Backbone:
């Protein structure tokens, strides 16, 4: 099933040469042209479901294993990738993202096997972005080098904080020192291709000390930073601690202040805020995530993974949300029986797709260009939808939104309050959709 070793080595070698070439020529991030809705291109997400330990705030689909049969899991990931590529009819995979869970706990051999299967089933260009999420404690220099040899060319490090007390509160397995060491090793191995996550809005966290952490990070980080606000999720240890009064509830106003100050600091340091939570300089935007925000197709492989694609290879014409079975053992049984562990397929209506185009596109600084919108909805233009809207005019007057010859997008100020803008914009879209005249009802 896998590529002959020589062919697989060929792909990794070509990928490395292309990566070097791209570094030398780097002109400014991913191709921001949006893929046509029914195109045969896609991004591929691979979910590794295991972690060493449960972080106190985490409600992701992850499991603490009592022994993983990695060879069996690897076979299932490969099989499901092959099946979904066939069902989708995708001819070109533009990026691969190994997320989790903690995919840096997987063996580099597993990563290589999935990449080999993808390269065999479809076109995986040599300069495709291949990202691995890494936790500092499971990402020593030698492991990172082995992931590089397996075909990974970008790392996303779950650093979260540079304060040991905060890391303990979050239940992380690493210290600030581990985080900085991993960051240094990652940059040595993947220069210009390392992203770090930093959290804000923790219980009792104050603006000044958090900003000092960000400044410290800026002295040693690479070209990509993600800022995430802690979200207190029911069922997590942190939620219970706050409920029981053992910890103060996070203060949303302080979190908003950290976010505002943090994005200003990053801008000052030459980072472009290209998405609500993501900042890059030297064009180091994440190609993979850009596909999500542009509503491109993506396949989700692994327990609980989500995908969005038109199953053209199986004669489908409608984009579907596809959700894989959550629990790893059940998922593996299904993959062994049916070739995939898809638990739910939800066809998306035209309106639902447009709502996603709007909500996802406005997360980026580019917003939604007229050309991009037209690929999804050729009848109702952005001008038809929003040009005469009183609410949109008000948002423009407040300096939060722009509608012009380029398209619809948030201003710098608007990006920080996107959720409140979306309420008006989505309800305007829904209203216009109901009022379409018969001649504007698109293709059947
Ligand atoms: S490492 Fe990530 S996925 Fe695993 S428990 Fe912690 S936050 Fe959750």
Residues:
């Amino acid at each position: 099933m896998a590529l002959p070793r020589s062919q697989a080595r060929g792909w990794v070698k070509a990928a490395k040469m292309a990566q070097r070439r791209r570094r030398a020529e780097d002109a400014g991030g991913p191709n921001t042209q949006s893929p046509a809705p029914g195109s045969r291109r896609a991004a591929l997400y691979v979910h590794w479901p295991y972690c060493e330990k449960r972080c106190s705030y985490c409600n992701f689909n992850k499991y603490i294993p009592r022994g993983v049969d990695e060879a069996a899991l690897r076979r299932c990931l490969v099989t499901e990738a092959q099946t979904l590529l066939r069902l989708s009819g995708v001819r070109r995979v533009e990026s691969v993202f190994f997320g989790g869970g903690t995919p840096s706990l997987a063996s580099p051999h597993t990563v290589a096997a999935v990449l080999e299967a993808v390269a065999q089933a479809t076109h995986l260009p040599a300069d495709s972005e291949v990202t691995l999420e890494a936790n500092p404690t499971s990402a020593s220099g030698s492991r990172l080098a082995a992931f590089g040899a397996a075909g990974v060319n970008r790392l996303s490090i779950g650093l979260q904080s540079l304060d040991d007390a905060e890391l303990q509160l979050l239940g992380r397995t690493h210290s600030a020192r581990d985080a900085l060491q991993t960051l240094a090793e990652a940059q040595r191995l993947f220069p210009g291709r390392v992203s770090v996550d930093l959290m804000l809005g923790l219980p009792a966290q104050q603006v000044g000390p958090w900003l000092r952490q960000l400044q410290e990070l800026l002295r040693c980080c690479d070209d990509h930073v993600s800022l995430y606000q802690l979200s207190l999720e029911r069922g997590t240890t942190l939620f219970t601690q706050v409920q029981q009064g053992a910890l103060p509830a996070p203060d949303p106003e302080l979190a908003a202040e950290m976010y505002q100050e943090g994005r200003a600091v990053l801008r000052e340091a030459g980072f472009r805020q290209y998405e609500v939570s993501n900042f890059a300089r030297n064009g180091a935007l994440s190609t993979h995530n850009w596909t999500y925000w542009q509503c491109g197709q993506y396949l989700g492989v692994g327990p609980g993974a989500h995908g969005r694609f038109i199953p053209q290879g199986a004669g489908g014409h409608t984009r579907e949300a596809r959700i894989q079975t959550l629990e790893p053992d059940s998922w593996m049984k299904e993959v062994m029986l049916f070739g995939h562990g898809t638990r739910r397929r939800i066809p998306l209506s035209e309106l639902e797709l447009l709502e996603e185009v709007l909500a996802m596109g406005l997360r980026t600084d580019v917003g939604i260009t007229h050309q991009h919108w037209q690929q999804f909805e050729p009848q109702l233009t952005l001008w038809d939808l929003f040009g005469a809207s009183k609410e949109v005019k008000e948002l423009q007057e407040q300096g939060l939104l722009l509608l012009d010859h380029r398209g619809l997008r948030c201003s710098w100020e608007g990006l920080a309050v996107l959720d409140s803008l979306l309420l008006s914009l989505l309800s305007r879209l829904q209203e216009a959709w109901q009022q379409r005249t018969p001649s504007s009802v698109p293709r059947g």
